[in-house]
Design brief:
- This is DUF1489 domain-containing protein.
- InterPro entries: UCP032025.
- The protein is built from 4 helices and 7 strands, in the order E-H-E-H-E-E-E-E-E-H-H.
- The protein has helices spanning 15-22, 40-43, 111-114, 121-130; strands at residues 4-8, 29-33, 48-53, 56-71, 74-81, 86-92, 99-102.
- Strands 1, 2, 3, 4, 5, 6 and 7 form a 7-stranded mixed β-sheet that branches.
- The chain is globular, with a radius of gyration of 15 Å.
């Protein structure tokens, strides 16, 4: 069964900021976390990392691999993400530390499925807050 992960996008206010930070490389994007997920098989079975920007889930990236990296006395988890960013319907989400599992039933739909197209993040946020979307 597929399972997703959700995490705050710290240091970036928009999806464009995230893309500028990583560049346009076709290589997988590495994400490092201190805690490794225990449900790896479910995350690798079509799971995605959903990102929260300023209180809203705005996009996701498919999880390609998860590995444990040993670096002396320090170890961490490396999650490789597909470089393609999939915009999702802006969905409010409170801040938290680290990452959480996200059940597929609770995941926001992709904008391509909702007909949201290429709305600017700010407009999508205002429509969502007004209850019009």
């Amino acid at each position: 069964m597929t399972l997703h992960m959700i995490r705050l996008c710290v240091g970036c206010d928009t999806i464009e900021d995230l893309v500028a930070w990583h560049g346009n490389s076709p290589d997988p994007w590495p994400l490092h976390t201190r805690m490794a997920p225990k449900r790896v098989e479910e995350l690798l079975d079509g799971g995605s990392l959903y990102r929260i920007f300023r209180g809203l889930v705005l996009c996701r990236q498919v999880i390609l691999s998860i590995s444990r990296v040993e670096a002396g006395s320090e170890s961490h988890c490396r999650i490789d993400l597909e470089p393609r960013i999939i915009r999702v319907a802006p969905t409010p989400r409170r801040a938290f530390q680290g990452w959480r599992y996200l059940d597929p039933a609770d995941a926001p739909p992709d904008l391509a499925e909702t007909g949201g197209g290429d709305l600017p993040d700010d407009l999508a946020r205002r429509l969502r807050e007004a209850g019009a979307w």
